[in-house]
Amino acid sequence: MNPTLKWGLALAVLLGLLDIAGVSGLWADEGPPAALAIGGGVVGVITIVAAALARRRGAIPVVIGSRVVSALLGLPVYWADDAPDWSKIVIGIAIAVTAAAIVLLAVGRRAPQPA
Predict the structure, then answer these.
(1) Cα-to-chain-centroid distance, residue 76
(2) Count of Cβ atoms closer than 10 Å to residue 9 Cβ
(3) From CA 20, how far away is CA 26, in angstroms rounded?
(4) Residues 39-60: tens digit of each pLDDT
(5) At what angle do helices 60-74 and 85-110 cross, to 10 degrees?
(6) In this structure, are residues 13 and 97 in contact, taking their beta carbons and an 8 Å threshold?
(7) Which of 51, 53, 84, 105 could form a disulfide with 59 if both were Cys (CB 3.0 to 4.6 A apart)?
(8) Cα 79 from Cα 109, distance rounded (Å)
């Protein structure tokens, strides 16, 4: 596995862990809607499992797809009037890191494999 792919998977796993941690927002006063928090947690688990299987089973497209879905689940914060300002910053950073992970995974998939 080439280093570009490893970095992409590492970022994806980190983001997946953050998605799972986001479920704790259900008990916060200014937390996200339950459907978004639970959906994000499920997507985080899918990302981590797919990343673990990516080395042997070629699950990179599943990792990429789960990260795209996670980024889309974060977008409603920009239209929610009652969302705290800090959440918009955090989601923006997460989307930027997600884009970086997707690029690394896509480039890493296409890189020639050593013999």
Answers:
(1) 16
(2) 23
(3) 12
(4) 999 999 999 999 999 877 788 9
(5) 160
(6) no
(7) 53
(8) 35
Q: Residue 76 in contact with residue 36, Cβ under 8 Å?
A: yes
Amino acid at 69: V
Could you write out the DSSP letters of every residue in 64-78?
HHHHHHHHHHHGGGG
Computed over its alpha carbons, how large is the radius of gyration of the chain? Answer: 15
Q: Give the pLDDT confidence of 13-28 residue by residue, as tens digits.
A: 999 999 999 898 888 7
Name the maximum alpha-carbon separation found in the chain. 54
Q: Which two tokens stand for residue 72?
A: 């889309």
pTM across the whole model: 0.87
Q: What is the DSSP letter of 107?
A: H
Kindly state the DSSP code that residue 112 receives in the 8-state scheme. Answer: P
Residue with the two structure tokens 């705290």: 84
